[in-house]
Design a protein that fits this description.
Layout lengths: L1 H9 L1 H25 L1 H9 L2 H19 L9 H23 L1 E8 L3 E18 L4 H7 L1 E8 L12 E2 L4 E2 L26 E6 L2 E9 L2 E6 L1 E8 L15 E8 L1 E2 L6 E2 L1 E5 L2 E7 L3 H9 L13 E6 L2 E6 H4 L5 E2 L5 E9 L4 E8 L6 E6 L14 E6 L7 H5 L5 E8 L12 E8 L2 E6 L7 E5 L4 E10 L5 E6 L14 E8 L2 E8 L16 E4 L3 E27 L6 E11 L11 E4 L4 E4 L6 E13 L4 H6 L10 E10 L3 H20 L17 E3 L10 E3 L10
Parallel strand pairs: 14-22
Antiparallel strand pairs: 1-36, 2-3, 2-31, 4-5, 6-7, 7-28, 8-27, 9-10, 9-26, 11-12, 13-14, 15-16, 15-21, 17-18, 18-19, 19-20, 22-23, 23-24, 25-26, 28-29, 30-31, 31-32, 32-33, 34-35, 35-36, 37-38
Helix pairs in contact: 1-4, 2-3, 2-4, 4-5, 5-11
Length: 713
């Protein structure tokens, strides 16, 4: 069996099939890199177990093809040298794959660093005693990690449903107009991804449920809208734009530090406005839908007041209620009395009381600021004031006094389903003298917005981030193969269990930036157990290259008339950890001119490339303020250079293997062993002669005619 396997691996048939398969894989890898970038082809092809297996089989085939011819003849010298060179070359490639370094160093001008960031990430869990002081907790802190996390270059929803040890998680809903991105033409499923349980020891369990290869953050609750029309023609019907015209509107709820209630977010759209706020109680949500005016009643001079009690709307003209004594609302046990009206504020103040023995509750209803209206929840009364303003000018529109307005609220779900709580969007459209209301579909189904002379505008929801309280939501960004890994912000949805108490949350990866900072609230999450707390972070893998790189100057040039960089270069110094220069003078690294440097301490030979840059940041930018808070004087602008540090332990071995291959081929030509037969020398009739083979295969023999030379044919 061993001999049969030996002859099989040395056979020409096996070599042809294997080399053809490798050629197909190499060609496929070229297409994958062209379509998805270098990171994707490393993950899906070059660093996979099956590609390593193919190369190992190629090495076995080369070795067996050479060994089966032993003892070698003199004319086979070139053949043997070539096959040894191929084996050395494959060994060098394996060394480069297993021990190579390809990482990025971001540097600000004047700063130095020795930490290089790789494309991979890891989790770290820090365990502290619960309730201990910060100083004491640091002394008693224990660290679990780094916990390896192989995630891949794409967001996991792009592969389809996420398979974990405990459940199958469906892809998240996509914004309208953006279909889910799947990559079915390549077998990405053959590559391992670390979905599921990564750590489970001593009552601490870490699971990864989902992953975004690149992400951003947004405040929640918030809603992204588009208002426009597919048939909108700004210059007339004959100038209609293909696809119409749509205007994006971003609205986010924000807390008001002066009030316990929410503060709205208002955006102006043409001659109207869009307002977003959050409603906490189901009765107020139902009153929001029912509190629309009745055009048949009219608006008078001061407007129409709609009071919703027990789910039923009651409509009054403010002109009829002013200077009138307390009166009962027909069909109820509610008494109301208008005490004041402010025309400049478009606001009415009234007293509400339920029953004869009840206590008065004050309401303040504002027509143009319905989100800050003070209702009477104890009496179960919710109010809305509608005033038909004259055409508002620009200044009045800035104050919210527009003739057209759309109110949008996040409201608790109706019915007994607790899963629907906090997931509804309701809208109320007011375009004098008519108002409408209803459920605003979060799936992008359009609803009527503003009516214009040339088109009926529609309202569509692009994204809805519901939340019970103000929080930061993590959102995926589309895949961009040209975006450098250092600029991507990875994020993982994890379930962390401590002493039986589990929490699920999105954990943003620590950013690759030139200055290390304390993790923010999205980059560090803590779960409390019975007697301890566990803090989880997701960080890029780093290596210490052993010496410091100092950026003396970074230069960036732009193409004339554009903002595109045509050239950027870095002037750097190489320093020991003690700050001693390791080279005589600074060196310049440009996009097409890398620099080689050997670390005198370790002997490692590094090659540094100019990869990209970060910035520029100017005063007022968040990163500028954070990076320059300890600088004096502060620069006019701030830029960071991103250098790639490459260490290839197999480079010399690969060069040696390539040299042996060239030497072997030269030897074959020099010895005329395969291509030129010796003149005047003929084989004896009937003698069986070996037929040499430059590739791999078992030696065969055939009868050679007396007049034929061995080199012929």
């Amino acid at each position: 069996m061993i001999l049969t396997a030996y002859e099989f691996f040395a056979s020409l048939q096996f070599a042809v099939v294997l080399i053809a398969l490798l050629a197909i894989v190499l060609g496929l890898g070229t297409f994958v890199e062209s379509a998805f970038g270098t990171e994707a082809v490393k993950f899906g092809v070059w660093n996979t177990w099956w590609f390593t297996l193919l190369n190992a089989l190629l090495g076995v085939s080369i070795f067996c093809a050479a060994a089966i011819r032993y003892p070698w003849k003199r004319h086979q010298t070139g053949f043997v040298i070539t096959h040894i060179g191929l084996l050395v070359l494959l060994a060098g490639c394996l060394l480069s794959q297993r021990g190579g370094v390809d990482a990025q160093i971001p540097l600000l001008e004047g700063s130095r660093g020795s930490k290089a960031y790789e494309d991979s990430s890891h989790f770290t869990l820090r365990i502290r005693p619960r309730g201990s002081s910060p100083a004491g907790s640091q002394r008693q802190e224990s660290v679990i990690g780094p916990i390896e996390f192989r995630s891949g270059p794409f967001s996991w929803n792009e592969y389809g449903p996420v398979q974990t040890a405990s459940r199958t998680q469906s892809p998240p809903p996509q914004p309208r107009g953006a279909s889910p991105v799947h990559r079915p033409w390549f077998p990405w499923g053959l590559v391992r991804r670390d979905a599921g349980v990564l750590h489970d020891e001593d009552g601490v369990r870490l699971e990864v449920l989902d992953f975004y290869a690149d992400s951003t953050t947004a405040l929640a609750p918030s809603v992204s809208l588009r208002i426009g029309s597919d048939t909108f023609a700004p210059g007339g019907a004959d100038e209609a734009r293909p696809g119409g015209m749509w205007m994006p509107v971003e609205l986010a709820w924000q807390p008001d530090p002066l009030r316990s209630a929410a503060q709205r977010h208002r955006s102006s759209v043409g001659g109207g406005s869009v307002v977003f706020w959050k409603i906490a109680s189901p009765p107020e949500a139902e009153a929001f839908l029912a509190g629309i005016p009745d055009p048949a009643l009219g608006y008078g001079q001061k407007g129409q007041l709609v009071l919703v009690a027990d789910g039923r709307p009651h409509r009054f003209l403010i002109d009829d209620l002013l200077d009138k004594p307390r009166s009962v609302i027909e069909g109820t046990d509610l008494f109301i009395e208008v005490t004041d009206f402010q025309s400049q504020l478009s606001a009415v103040r009234l007293q509400v009381r339920r029953g004869d023995q009840g206590r008065d509750e004050e309401m303040v209803v504002l027509a143009d600021l319905p989100e800050v209206t003070i209702h009477a929840p104890r009496a179960g009364v919710y109010g809305t004031l509608w005033i038909e303003h004259a055409a508002a000018d620009a200044a009045e529109r800035m104050q919210g006094k527009a003739r057209s307005r759309i109110d949008i609220v996040q409201a608790p779900g109706s019915g007994a389903d607790p899963a629907a709580a906090g997931q509804r969007l309701l809208y109320r459209r007011w375009q004098a003298p008519v108002g409408t209301s209803g459920l605003l579909p979060a799936d992008g189904t359009p609803v009527p917005a503003f009516a214009m002379p040339k088109a009926q505008l529609e309202l569509r929801v692009e994204r809805f981030l519901p939340a019970e309280k103000l929080e930061v939501a993590t959102l995926p960004l589309p895949f961009d193969k040209n975006k450098p890994p250092s600029a991507k912000r990875r994020a993982a949805r994890v379930r962390l269990t401590v002493d039986g108490r589990a929490e699920e949350f999105w954990l943003a990866g620590m950013p690759v930036q030139p200055i290390e900072e304390t993790p923010g609230p999205t980059e560090e999450r803590t779960v409390a157990g019975t007697s301890r707390t566990v803090t989880a972070t997701l960080s890029p893998d780093t290596i210490d290259i052993g010496f410091d790189v100092k950026l003396d100057n970074f230069e960036r040039r732009l193409d004339p008339g554009t903002s595109q960089a045509s050239h950027f270069s870095s002037v750097v110094e190489f320093l020991s950890p003690q700050g001693k220069p390791l080279v005589g003078q600074p060196v310049t690294i440009t996009m097409n001119a890398p620099v080689d440097f050997s670390d005198p301490a370790t002997g490692r030979s590094y090659r540094l490339f100019q990869e990209s840059f970060m910035g520029p940041w100017v005063p007022g930018d968040d990163l500028y303020e954070r990076f320059t808070k300890n600088l004096s004087p502060r620069p006019e602008k701030l830029e960071a250079s991103v250098l790639t540090v490459n260490y290839d332990p197999g480079r010399g071995v690969k060069y040696a293997g390539s040299g042996l291959i060239v030497a072997g081929i030269f030897t074959m030509f020099y010895m005329r062993a395969y291509f030129f037969g010796s003149r005047g020398t003929s084989a004896r009739s009937g003698e069986s002669q070996p037929i040499p083979d430059t590739g791999s295969g078992v030696r065969t023999a055939r009868r050679v005619p007396p007049t034929a030379r061995i080199g012929d044919g």
